[in-house]
Amino acid sequence: MQAPTALTAQSGHEQIVRWRLFFYMGARVLGIGLLASGIVTWIAANWDGFGKFERIAGVQLLLVAVVAIALVQAGRGRRSCRLVTGVPGPASSGSGAVPAYAGALFLACVATGGLLALLGQTYQTGADPWTLFGWWALLTVPWLLVARSWFVIVLWLLVLNTAIILLLGTQLVLSPQRYTPMGYAWVVAAINAGLLAGAERLRSHYSDPYRVVPRLLALIILIALFCTLAASLESLFDGQSNHAMLLQAVLVGAVVSGGFYRYRRIRPDFFILSQLAVFTVLYAGTYVLIASWLFAESIELSVALAFLVALGGMLGCVSWLRKVYQARSGAPMAKAEFEATPARSSPLLFLFSFGFIFLLGLALILVLEIPPVGAAGAALVAGLLAYFAPPGKWRVVGATLMLAGLLLLAFEVFGPSEIDYMGRDLPRLGLIAGLLLLYHMYQVPWFQFLCAVAALVLFAILWPQYSPGIAFDPADAGLYGNRHDAGWVFFLSELAPGCIVLACVILMGLPPVWLRRYKTLAWALLGVPLGAYVIHMSGFSYSGNPSVQDGSNMLAVALSKWRLPTRFPVAYLGNLVFALLPVGIAWLSATRRRVPVADQAIVLLVLLALGVLWGDLPAVQLGLLLCLLGYELRYRSMRVVGVISIVVFLAQFYFQLHFLLLDKAVFLIAQGASLLVIALLWYRLRPVAAVRQPPVDQDGTTDPIFDMPDGLHGRQGSRLLVPGTSSVAHTLPAPVARSGLGWPSVPVLASIVAGLVAVLAVANTDIVQKEAIIREGTRFVVALRPVDPRSLMQGDYMTLNFTSQRADDRDLFSDYSHRYVELEPDAHGVYHFTRTLPQMAPPAQPGNVVVRYRRQLDERVLFVTDAYFFPEGQGEHFARARYGEFRVNQDGVALLTGLLDDKQNRL
Prior knowledge:
Radius of gyration: 30 Å
Number of helices: 29
Low-confidence stretches: 1-10, 79-95, 331-343, 470-484, 541-552, 689-742, 790-794
Mean pLDDT: 74
């Protein structure tokens, strides 16, 4: 009788340890993300409170501090490993555990990019942005090799691909005579194919349990291959031979076939196979649409052929994936389940293919001038007949046709630009009811998700008529534009919080039998508000408080929203929902696991503080909520969506102009640093464990969106436990668990130090060279025309277009073999372009200067730089600039040192 009790006690302890580890990792990852975003934002603010050397030294000291933390963690982890016997390290176990110093190295990589951006901002070298990303990728290679973590690799891949794309847009490697858009896309695809081969070859040397790196690389390759189609179309319009289009289709087919073979036979990965299947359907349909239109010049025939090819491609891919699934799945019950629901294992294929085919069908209806109501009726009748056919094999076809028919009716009923809210209530409500009925008729996740999303979107459009909180008056609500915009604002402020609460009730409160049926509805209830918030942020000012338009303090604004107004608005209740819902989910999770009260209090207070700060900025709270739900229910895909939503929000938050960049930087850095301190204390005071456990749904089935079938897990990619081992590998003291075990300490420490030395050497060498030009270079002035946008990494700047009053610039720079231009001064001291040179040479006359220039493939001439960065909020001051002041050395390398007004006074 004692064994079960002991086992139960051990299981409860393991659950507590896993709970502690999750919140430690959550605080650590969120803290690193906020801190990295804050660093980039602070650099972009170009704060003039410090001098240029103080700013540069500050970022370098920050980089040194972060690398020092990584060194301490690496050394401590190695020493701790020697004190514990029988603890397998990552190298020996083959699991590729993430070392503790990987997070610090990730921050070091971000700080390196920030330092390079700061140098470009300080010395106004914005003409070659590819050099920033190129040096960034090159200098972080030593840290990439020892971090052995997928998130550092993903950052490096994004930086490298950005550098490649920007480099291919210059004439350093290509000239307009040899450049073709198709070749541009093929170069990107080929480089990433090589990286994919390397990632697969070295997969046992880095931690990537979810195979994020190869799947991301496969996605980049497929996007580049799809771009070859658009590039071939551009080539045809330029009068080139159409044989290139056929040849590139053959090459694309060969590459995709190779991908199918590799990830079917050599390295099985069902997710990448689904990516390839989606690409096949989209590419084949688009290719047939373009090719038939070019050769037959009949839009009706082109759309019809594309529709048939895409439909046939989807059916063929589904049949093939079904055979793959059945061949790889050894469990008879899994085979039987797939026989009943053939679309369950490939939701990506069905989601994207259905949308593409539906758009082609809608285009065909429009070009053939078929009444949408008639087409919808035909689809509904055919769908009912197929759905209720005796063998039951046509249920998926029938359900899909009925969904297409209802969506066609939705286009007809909701089609007018000015919606009559008093005229069509019954048909609209009937459509929503029909979609919900269809949700229950065919219980396959992708199909149910489409039905639920369509019903929610239609209800959101209809919601303003029934809104209890605000009368439908755009003027009173402070809204401008059409009623669709007002409807979305009402949905976000009134209906979205209720949808999210309902989703949490479904996921956390329903029994397993009901959860299987309504889990996809909960996904839609979470996904539609999240997507609406992201779209709303992209198109509108991100704040409901107009008083922040002058750049008010972020913390003051965050706290002021909690003052109770005289009238209790619905938006205030929505803020409460977003602030308290993650706290409630965390409390339920802790209660179910019987977590100690002290641990609960710490976590709940942290989540409550985040809710107070981000309550009316719902994207962060929604991301946290999805991560908490994903952990509690073991939905890996929900955690992934939560992390992505936070990343997307931070990227969009950077471009919201209602808050000063400096205020946003302080706001983000303070939160990130606080979370990292809390994570460190939690790590030191609470035991954690190295957990390996397959992501399983609450109802016992694998997650249908991102999890692959058990039989398709690779050796290193599998997250299944070895038989006879516990799901919690070891419960260790905090300094030992999740440290960088298994690698020799000297190479790791040497690589970390080498990366730091390389970054500092390159940065300070560049500073010395630039300062020499400023100090000793020849001064000259050129006329310009400024514009005012915002850079991603370097803040506010003006785009500079230099002009000449003595020559036609286009004729002057017509020789693409030349790289230098000579300028001569006029009577007012303003320099003008006179001639171009193939190489550096002495000026023709005393007083002239020779300057090196660059050229883009779009034939734009980049003279020294195309941008001038200035502190945030000073755009109006620098808009008065009429001239640029430069310094050039004897090698023709010039720097923009300042802007001058119309009287040549420095601004």
